[in-house]
Specification:
Elements: E1 2-5, H1 6-12, H2 16-27, E2 35-36, E3 42-43, E4 51-59, E5 65-73, E6 85-92, E7 99-104, H3 106-127, E8 135-140, H4 144-157, E9 161-167, E10 185-187, H5 191-195, E11 200-203, E12 221-223, H6 232-235, E13 240-243, H7 246-249, H8 255-263, E14 271-272, H9 273-278, E15 291-294, H10 299-316, E16 320-321
Parallel strand pairs: 1-7, 8-9, 8-11, 9-10, 11-12, 12-15, 13-14, 13-15
Antiparallel strand pairs: 1-16, 2-4, 3-4, 4-5, 5-6, 6-7
Length: 323
């Protein structure tokens, strides 16, 4: 068995295009026997803001991996100067069930999240009949998830980024940003300044309350990574709504669940990420239609990317061998 942590993951690196390709490859199997991911159970006790989530999955095809992610999210940790999330993951051999890797890496969870956003962003940019050579990005929430998205955007779309605006209620220090981006990121005093001037807008917050109370600009891509930032009335008229898995995302007080309960949004009314990527689902909508992406987080993506890092670790000798 191999043990990998954040430093091992960083040594292997983040080849974003390859990671996005692996996400897309796993996505192709959704709805078949080559991708199995039971509904995630949530463990809550005492302080009900906290949750620990079990995310088992099997992915066949070129990925051929199985395992379970066990991720704890304790929002109060931020007030203690501790990470909000703690991520562990075990991979098992698909033939024997023997454990082959143990990963303790919050970095890996952030990488998965940003790679999925990259897959959605690619589909959004490619569906435009006359794609603009450059676009403006806005990020609200500049913790580990927001920063990882920033790294992905710079790596994959650097020559197409016209401007990046960012806001965080705790403030944003330029020293926390990648050195090559400090001159390109504009720190804003309010989320509205980010929202109103972005072609691609990301929420990467831990906000306890919904605060976005205005409709999206035409043609905007809303990457709703944190899932609980939009007042229902601000998005109730959107037609191009995309989810990764309806069963997962229509619960746990997400914006999708709010739309379902308050405005009758149903599974038949949304596109899946698989339909967008593999069936060109966005082509049913004109370019001026705003796109609202809500990814609850598919365990299959975590397992697929963990398998990639395991194989790279075996190839390079990175990691600690456990008996």
């Amino acid at each position: 068995m191999i043990y990998l942590n954040d430093s091992h993951i960083d040594r292997i690196g983040s080849p974003w295009r390859e990671l996005m390709r692996i996400v897309s490859a796993a996505l192709k199997h959704q709805g078949t026997e080559e991708l199995v991911q039971p509904l995630k159970p949530y463990l809550r006790f005492r302080d009900l803001r906290n949750r620990i989530i079990a995310m088992p999955a099997f992915v066949g095809g070129e990925v051929e991996a199985s395992g379970i992610k066990w991720i704890a999210s304790f929002p109060g940790n931020l007030e203690r100067g501790l990470p909000r999330a703690h991520n562990t993951l075990i991979l098992n051999d698909t033939s024997t069930g023997a454990p082959v890797a143990f990963l303790r890496s919050s970095r890996l969870s952030a990488i998965r999240t940003a790679a999925v956003s990259g897959v959605m962003l690619d589909a959004y940019l490619n569906r435009k009949r006359e794609p603009a050579p450059r676009f403006r990005v806005g990020i609200v929430g500049m913790g580990p998830i927001g920063l990882t998205h920033l790294q992905m955007l710079h790596s994959v779309y650097g020559d197409r980024l016209e401007e990046i605006r960012a806001f965080d209620v705790r403030g944003v220090s330029l020293e926390t940003l990648p050195a090559e981006l400090r001159g390109q990121v504009r720190i804003c005093p309010d989320w509205r300044e980010v929202y109103d001037r972005s072609d691609v807008f990301l929420t990467c917050t831990t906000s306890p309350e919904r605060y976005i109370d205005r409709p999206a600009r035409p043609g905007t891509l809303l990457l709703n990574v944190s899932l609980r930032d939009y007042a229902p009335d601000s998005v109730k008229l959107l037609r191009a709504i995309v989810v990764d898995d309806w069963r997962e995302v229509c619960r746990e007080n997400t914006d999708i669940e709010k739309l379902h309960l308050l405005h009758g949004l149903a599974e038949k009314d949304v596109l899946t990420l698989k339909q967008v990527v593999w069936e060109k689902g966005l082509e049913a909508y004109p370019p001026e239609e705003a796109v609202f992406f809500n990814p609850m987080g598919m365990a299959a993506f975590d397992i697929a990317l963990a398998a990639y890092y395991l194989r790279q670790a075996e190839r390079t000798g990175i990691g600690t061998r456990l008996e």
